[in-house]
UniProtKB/TrEMBL annotation, chain A:
InterPro entries: ABC_transp_permease
Membrane topology classification: Multi-pass membrane protein
Protein name, as recorded: Sugar ABC transporter permease YjfF
Location of this chain's protein in the cell: Cell membrane
Residue ranges crossing the lipid bilayer per the database entry: 47-80, 87-111, 117-141, 162-180, 211-236, 248-275, 295-314
Protein origin, superkingdom: Bacteria
Keywords: Cell membrane, Membrane, Transmembrane, Transmembrane helix
GO molecular function: transmembrane transporter activity
A GO cellular-component term linked to this record: plasma membrane
UniProt source species: Metarhizobium album
TrEMBL record, chain B:
Bilayer-crossing regions: 12-38, 50-68, 75-92, 98-121, 128-146, 158-187, 213-237, 249-267, 274-295, 301-319
Subcellular location: Cell membrane
Organism encoding this protein: Metarhizobium album
Molecular function, one GO term: transmembrane transporter activity
One Pfam family this sequence matches: BPD_transp_2
Membrane topology qualifier: Multi-pass membrane protein
Cellular component, GO, one term: plasma membrane
InterPro entries: ABC_transp_permease
Swiss-Prot/TrEMBL keywords: Cell membrane, Membrane, Transmembrane, Transmembrane helix
Name this protein carries in UniProt: Sugar ABC transporter permease
């Protein structure tokens, strides 16, 4: 097996093993209801994690997504409460805002040659601050359109439901895979992760690609915010704190190299499901405290970083 | 000696001016701002309050400066604060004497720092990612220590660290000033500071020239862990309890901001602990100013974002190239250096 598939294979193996262990202890875990809920409950995180995968593949990082999700939710809640515009129009509007927001961050990163870490940190403060300025209260969204959208679902055999948002997440993952592995933009992203200087010499449009990557991340964070507002039927400026960390963890556990240049969008889905599985197991168990989720995710993160180091070391040794 | 003092004054000038402007703006809106009073053997006043409230960020900024000078970053300090606060509270509720409690809390911080340093220096993991592990897992560990509750304690000695006074000043202020001076003396009176800067500028070259890079890197992250431990104890002592969820939440970002405001480049290299401490005070003065002037505190984050963007533009390598292009004739005429 090629070493680049090793992290992905390990992730999938860990997921299957973990699911088997869970299913042995609680046979109910095998029901399609659990599977459906796993998708629905992690839908917003998954969509944001696709954007994060592209950012990390290019060798960057985006710390702003949690704040952007919160901003989107508050924006939608405020707009739907105070104006009479249709939710779909509000969705388009907020997606435009978050995409431009991402583009600006990408432009600052590229043209001012600053580390993505600190630029997106400023973006994180700004988006959270804007959400606070819009409203500090948790605003319920009572628009009938929301209820209609929540009533759409595909019924699986066994009573499980793939809800609209769960299905949307799967679609985003498929679109992300096509974008990463089948388009020129995707190839450019991988090239950028391999090294800015090299890719520039290869003729990759560095400026355009960098800006597009962060625009994509902003767009998906906005979409994730819409999904989150559908999921919670409310907008709250303190919501989704720390989602960026969960997204980064999903990407890394999914086998994407943190230095950029190698990884798979599909791996992120498995990484996400592993996190969801840990949470579901803790819920099933009932006696374990929820903070074990954090410790286990931290531990998994550590194991995968170590594995990545090992693979890099082996491939370097092979190269001489 | 005079020359070094002059250099230091020049280095700190932008931060001092910024702090003065912020304070003047607050004083313009809020006339009684500079008033002091002396009661119960300690000073009271808004300025003292800024120094006191800014203590955790100031302490974190000391360690963060050294870590950033090595071209690293420590995202785990907030979580380490929570762990150490929890350890201190747990130890105090078990009735351990103050010395044992403090030793346990500080040792925990040092262990956390060594762990981060080990990941960065020995396993050669990017600092953001290496410290992310503890940032994610840290609060879970802190919850484990407090068993999910907010541990409250009544240990007089421990409470004194958060709310007591020494020589008229609140204890947290005394701690961060003394600690800041001690660490500055340690790195500037020896070659340590220069070696750390060398690592930040070019780690490989420093290793090749015989610097014990791994040891110094681990030491830098250990210092950061120790600073986080002290800040954690102060934060816990301040509220007489350990809150694993909220202690030090997002303070890592404030600490990084303080270092950046202090003019230390995130790309590693030259650093100034004094400037970072001034940076921490600028941030705290803005926080206090917004509260005093009656602005909604929600504007705080937006102001911080604007500050970061302005500093980014100033620090940006591109802008430097452009400005040095314009400044070149002047420098030649002035014969600087």
């Amino acid at each position: 097996m090629k070493p680049k598939y090793l992290p992905l294979a390990a992730t999938i193996a860990i997921f299957i093993l973990a699911y088997a262990v869970c299913a042995l202890q609680y046979p109910a875990m095998l029901s399609t209801r659990v599977v459906g809920n796993l998708l629905t409950d992690n839908a917003f995180l998954g969509i944001a994690a696709v954007g994060m995968t592209f950012v990390i593949l290019s060798g960057g990082i985006d710390l702003s997504i949690g704040s952007v999700i919160a901003f989107t939710g508050v924006f939608l809640a405020v707009v739907l409460e105070h104006t009479s515009i249709h939710p779909l129009a509000a969705f388009v509007l907020v997606l435009a805002i978050t995409t431009v927001f991402g583009m600006i961050m990408g432009a600052i990163i590229h043209y001012l040659e600053m580390p993505p870490f600190i630029v997106t940190l400023a973006g994180m403060f700004l988006a959270r601050g804007m959400a606070f300025v819009l409203s500090i209260d948790s605003i319920p969204i009572k628009h009938p359109f929301y209820a209609t959208m929540k009533s759409f679902y595909y019924k699986l055999p066994g009573g499980g439901r793939i809800t609209l948002i769960g299905g949307l997440m799967l679609l985003v993952f498929i679109a992300g895979m096509v974008l990463a592995h089948r388009t020129r933009f995707g190839t450019n992203v991988y090239a950028l992760g391999g090294g800015t200087q090299t890719s520039r010499l290869m003729g990759v449009p560095v400026a355009r690609t960098t800006i597009l990557i962060y625009a994509l991340s902003g767009f998906l964070a906005g979409l994730s915010g819409i999904v989150f507002s559908l999921y919670t039927s409310a907008g709250y400026s303190l919501a989704a704190v720390g989602v960026e960390l969960d997204a980064i963890a999903a990407v890394v556990i999914g086998g994407t190299l943190l230095t950029g240049g190698a990884g798979f969008v599909g791996g992120t889905l498995v990484g996400l499901l592993i996190q969801g599985l840990i949470q579901t197991y803790i819920t099933f168990d009932g006696s374990l405290s929820s903070w074990w989720t954090k410790i286990l995710i931290g531990l998994l993160l550590f194991v995968f970083i170590l594995m990545q180091k090992l693979i890099l070391y082996l491939s370097r040794k092979k190269a001489g | 000696m005079i020359r070094t003092v002059q250099q230091l004054a020049l280095r700190l000038l932008p931060q001092v001016i910024a702090l003065a402007i912020v304070l003047a703006m607050i004083a313009a809106v809020f006339p009684g701002f500079f008033s002091f009073s002396f009661q119960n053997g300690r000073l009271y006043g808004s300025i003292i309050d800024i120094l006191n409230r800014g203590a955790p960020v100031a302490l974190l900024a000391i360690g963060m400066t050294v870590v950033i000078a090595t071209k690293g970053i420590d995202l785990s300090v907030g979580a380490v604060m929570a762990i150490c606060g929890a350890v201190a509270a747990a130890s105090a509720t078990h009735g351990n004497p103050l010395v044992v409690t403090l030793a346990l809390a500080l040792a925990t911080g040092i262990v956390c720092g060594i762990w981060n340093g080990f990941l960065v220096a020995v396993l050669d993991i990017q600092p953001i990612i290496a410290t992310l592990v503890l940032m994610v897992a840290g609060r879970g560990i802190a919850q484990l220590v407090t068993e999910g509750a907010i541990l409250t304690f009544n240990d007089e000695g421990l409470i004194f660290i958060g709310g007591g006074a020494f020589g008229g000043l609140p204890m947290p202020v005394v701690i961060w000033i003394v600690f800041g001076i001690a660490i500055t003396a340690l790195v500037r009176r020896t070659a340590l500071g220069m070696l750390i800067e060398a690592i930040g500028i070019n780690r490989r070259a420093s290793t090749l020239s015989g610097i014990q890079t791994p040891v110094l890197l681990i030491a830098a992250y250990t210092l950061s862990g120790l600073c986080a431990a002290i800040a954690g104890v102060i934060a816990a002592a301040d509220i007489r309890g350990a809150d694993a969820n909220n202690a030090g939440l997002w303070l890592e970002l404030d600490a990084i901001l303080a270092v950046v405001v202090g003019g230390t480049s995130l790309l590693g290299g030259r650093f100034s602990i004094a400037a970072s401490l001034l940076g921490a005070m600028i941030i705290q003065a803005i926080n206090t100013g917004i509260l005093l002037s009656g602005f909604p505190p929600e504007f705080n984050l937006i102001i911080k974002a604007v500050i970061i963007v302005v500093i980014l533009v100033v620090q940006s390598p591109k802008i430097r190239t452009i400005s040095s292009f314009f400044a070149r004739p002047a420098r030649q005429n002035g014969g600087e250096r």
